[in-house]
């Protein structure tokens, strides 16, 4: 399916904010398998809770096709989509096709012998129960009810986009900080700032804090005292930042960065860690295989990160795409275990002792000479996303859950 890049503009800040989206039709129509729902005319009173009104002419960095008006509302266990049929001249309810899958939706109408796509997306905000999809006509509107797989998750929008992720991430993070790690300090800082601005967190950079403290640049510090000295100093900075909430912290890249060293992760576990990893892989499969190999190398500190975003090259124009991929991966991680934010808070309250994720009772301390950060721990989900260089600022990433082998696990 074609991927379209555009923008969303919030035109009204009232109770029912209006968004304008301008869409171009795709070059081709997706033929992905789905559950097709055909229905008779049903008259039903709809809920007006948290409804967003849209004038759809385009979409926001998401695979999305529409040329008609729609309204969206979240009614707890289900979400509702209302599309204006207007002058479509529907002759029969058989002229309407609603195809739903776990994470995709396609709505088409037949007019004068040809199919017209009203909405098509393979990136719903979260998964639905396609077999329980219901649609009906209410006056001049087509109403589609989608049953959510997770009724506790509030959907800011029907699709997963930068705008919906920045809003939806707040309910999932619950104030937990985010640490951006990787070999490029510049990329870490750029993406961390984008995420922080998007979700309303405080952007922090360990480079700036270290240079302010030392009154010299990181490069000169490395030349005079060596990379080990810088890594130790950054580790001390991370200790002081570990108790911060609602912050996005960009860490140092390269040999001088604490995050690269497996024995310096004690305080990074306090927040959700995103590893921005540049790759020479040319496709998603090879990037995932590369991620698996890195995960299995316990010597590399980055392999301890909660999620990884694989970048095929880098350009500043990709910043929002990388930031969006990072939030998407964190979202999937938290949805796999909703206790993670609370567990992170407990880890901080107990003093960031390095016993993540198997947190020990109060009073526990690693024995002398025992490095808590390299201890054998249980397996956790590891989420990887690949961004190809030719994608520019479009969102065409695919999140794939991986098992995270920690030190002591055997390769299978």
TrEMBL record:
Annotated GO CC locations = cytosol
What's a single GO BP term from this record?
response to stress
Query: What stretches pass through the bilayer?
Result: none
Q: Which Pfam families match?
A: CS, SKI
Which SUPFAM superfamilies does the protein's record reference?
A: HSP20-like chaperones
Q: Where is the CS domain positioned along the sequence?
A: 65-159
UniProt similarity note: Belongs to the shikimate kinase family.
In Swiss-Prot or TrEMBL terms, this protein is called CS domain-containing protein
Per the UniProt record, the source organism is: Castanea mollissima
């Amino acid at each position: 399916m074609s991927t379209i890049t555009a923008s969303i503009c919030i035109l009204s800040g009232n109770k029912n904010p209006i968004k304008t989206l301008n869409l171009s039709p795709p070059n081709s129509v997706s033929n992905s398998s789905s559950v097709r729902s055909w229905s008779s005319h049903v008259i039903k009173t709809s809920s007006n809770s948290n409804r967003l009104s849209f004038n759809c002419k385009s979409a926001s960095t998401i695979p999305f096709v529409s040329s008609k008006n729609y309204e969206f509302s979240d009614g707890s266990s289900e979400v509702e989509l209302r599309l204006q049929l207007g002058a479509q001249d529907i002759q029969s309810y058989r002229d309407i096709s609603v195809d739903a899958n776990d994470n995709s939706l396609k709505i088409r109408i037949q007019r004068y012998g040809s199919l017209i796509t009203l909405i098509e997306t393979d990136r719903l905000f979260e998964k639905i129960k396609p077999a329980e999809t219901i649609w009906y006509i209410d006056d001049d509107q087509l109403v589609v009810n989608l049953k959510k797989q997770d009724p506790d998750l509030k959907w800011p929008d029907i699709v997963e986009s930068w705008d919906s992720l920045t809003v939806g991430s707040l309910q999932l993070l619950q104030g937990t900080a985010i640490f951006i790690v990787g070999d490029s300090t510049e990329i870490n800082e750029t993406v961390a700032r984008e995420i922080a601005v998007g979700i309303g967190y405080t952007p922090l950079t360990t480079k700036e804090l270290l240079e302010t403290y030392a009154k010299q640049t990181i490069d000169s510090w490395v030349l005079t005292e060596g990379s080990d000295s810088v890594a130790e100093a950054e580790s001390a900075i991370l200790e002081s930042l570990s108790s911060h909430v609602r912050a996005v912290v960009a860490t140092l890249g390269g040999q001088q960065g604490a995050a690269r060293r497996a024995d310096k992760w004690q305080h990074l576990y306090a927040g959700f860690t995103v590893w921005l990893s540049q790759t020479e892989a040319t496709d998603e499969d090879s990037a995932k295989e590369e991620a698996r190999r890195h995960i299995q190398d316990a010597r590399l500190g980055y392999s301890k990160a909660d999620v990884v975003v694989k970048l095929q090259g880098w350009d500043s124009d990709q910043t929002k795409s990388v930031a969006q991929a990072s939030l998407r991966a964190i979202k999937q991680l938290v949805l796999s275990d909703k206790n993670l934010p609370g567990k992170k808070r407990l880890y901080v309250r107990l003093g960031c002792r390095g016993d993540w994720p198997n947190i020990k009772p109060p009073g526990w301390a690693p024995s002398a000479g025992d490095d808590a950060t390299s201890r054998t721990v249980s397996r956790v989900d590891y989420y990887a996303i690949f961004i190809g260089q030719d994608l520019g600022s479009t969102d065409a990433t695919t999140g794939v859950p991986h098992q995270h082998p920690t030190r002591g696990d055997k390769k299978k």
